[in-house]
Amino acid sequence: MALRGSLARLLRAQPDAALRPRRGAHSVALVGAPLSRGQKRRGVDHGPATLRAAGLVERLAGLGCQVHDFGDLNFTQVPNDELYNNLILYPRSVGLASQMLADVVSRAVAAGHRCVTLGGDHSLALGSISGHTRQCPHLGVIWVDAHADINTPLTTQSGSLHGQPLSFLLRELQNKVPQLPGFSWLKPCLSASDIVYIGLRDVDPAEYYILKNFDIQYFSMRDIDRLGIQKVMERTFEQLMGRRQRPIHLSFDIDAFDPSLAPATGTPVLGGLTYREGMYITEEIHNTGMLSAVDMVEVNPLLGASQEAVKATAHLAVDVIATCFGQTREGAHIAFDELPTPSSPDESDSEEQVRI
Ligand SMILES: [Mn+2]
């Protein structure tokens, strides 16, 4: 087929102008972690498939990221995984799955990828944060969630481990946390000053005690109402990066959003983040240039009231991840060097022909 004039030039120019990855494009590893034993509802193990079906890989590739999809980890349930202390559910299964995930995240970060873990329930942060700290011992954690997820096995009411991961990771709490079967590999790797919470609005009494007594920085929904999301992010980075730059681990529970936006999740709480607050949080994290790993957890496609509700939740989660890797609300996602110029009348009348 022969094309003439400006169209041919535009087509020839396109690979350069439109498809070139943005400078400093990220290499992103995707790891599916279909962990569901940290809580009681069915379906959260379909989270990774739901996020992929919502176009996650294509969106990241469209931003110029090199995407390496490692597929889903194969978590088998450990047989005879009895309750610990007559209360804690599936300790061996959660422990083993987190151990596997820790190894994979550690290897992905060591290979130079930013590692995105697709949950699965929030107990997977035991693994993703443990693995990440093996490579980046001084990282800071931004935990975006309606809940604090810092009950100990001795304070939890539900027995579900997705409400407890931070108690195992925090050095200051180690004399308050019993050794669970399946957890012998786990070493506390965070200090209280390494964590900032955003979005809290359902905090248990023992969790509140921990936040206050160990001086953990948190911004509840009330704080966001009071300060505005811009001040909240300023103070977040002041806390984590005030003295020195450090890698960031973002652990994002989709239930941080208002249930009107993210209905397909196990423990929704009214009065959550708006879409704009969620995007601002992740835009600012991207702008630090220090984001090193992300968890996206608790998307449960069996809990939406309709297909639309599930789709809305999944697309929101994909927007969060894409924004972490450079999607902006201003546009200009990809470098664009030069606008095409209309041909002069002389040129378009010429006999120039190009074969493509
Ligand atoms: Mn959570």
UniProtKB/TrEMBL annotation:
Cofactor(s) needed by this chain: Mn(2+)
Binding residues for Mn(2+): 122, 145, 147, 149, 253, 255
Cofactor binding, per record: Binds 2 manganese ions per subunit.
GO terms under biological process: arginine metabolic process; negative regulation of activated CD8-positive, alpha-beta T cell apoptotic process; negative regulation of CD4-positive, alpha-beta T cell proliferation; negative regulation of chemokine (C-C motif) ligand 4 production; negative regulation of chemokine (C-C motif) ligand 5 production; negative regulation of defense response to bacterium; negative regulation of interleukin-13 production; negative regulation of interleukin-17 production
Stretches with biased composition (Acidic residues): 346-356
EC number: 3.5.3.1
Pathway given in the UniProt record: Nitrogen metabolism; urea cycle; L-ornithine and urea from L-arginine: step 1/1
Signal peptide: none
Catalytic reaction equation(s): L-arginine + H2O = urea + L-ornithine
CDD domains, A to Z: Arginase (cd09989)
GO CC entries: mitochondrion
Pfam families, per database record: Arginase (PF00491)
InterPro entries: Arginase, Ureohydrolase, Ureohydrolase_dom_sf, Ureohydrolase_Mn_BS
Region (Disordered): 337-356
Keywords: Arginine metabolism, Hydrolase, Manganese, Metal-binding, Urea cycle
GO MF: arginase activity; manganese ion binding
Similarity field: Belongs to the arginase family.
Subunit structure: Homotrimer.
Protein name from the UniProt record: Arginase
Gene: ARG2
